[in-house]
Amino acid sequence: MSIPRPTKIAIAVGGVVAAPLVAAVVLASYDWNQARPWLNERISAAIARPFDIRGAVSLAWRNEGELLPMPHLVARDVHVGNPRGMQAPDELASVGQFAFAVELLPLLRQRIEIPELRFDNPKLLLQREADGKNNWTFKSEDKASVWSLDVQRVVFTKGTVRYIDAMTHVDASAQVDTIKDPRYGVSWQLRGKWNNQDIQGSGKAGAVLSLQKQTAPFPLAASLNVGGTSISFDGTLTKPAALTALDMRLKLSGPSMARLYGLTGVLLPETPPFVTEGHLTGNLGANASHWIYDQFTGKVGASDIAGKLDFKTGAPRSLLSGNIQSRLLQVSDLGPLIGADSNASKEARGAEELQPGNKVLPVETFRTDRWTAIDANVNFKAARITRNKDLPIQNLETQIHLKDGVLALKPMNFDIAGGRFTSNIVLDGSGKVNAHAIRADLKAKAAHLQLRQLFPSIDGMQATVGEINADVALTSTGNSVASLLGASNGEFKGVVNQGSVSKLLLEAMGLNLGSVVMTKLVGDKQVKLNCMVTDFAVSNGVMNSRLFVADTSEARIDVHGTVNLGNEKLDLTLKPDAKSVRVISLRAPIYVRGTFKQPDISVDKGAMALRAGSALALAVVAPVAAIVPLVSTSTGETAGCQALIAQAGKPQH
Question: Looking at the structure, do residues 376 and 460 belong to the same domain, yes or no?
Answer without folding.
Answer: no
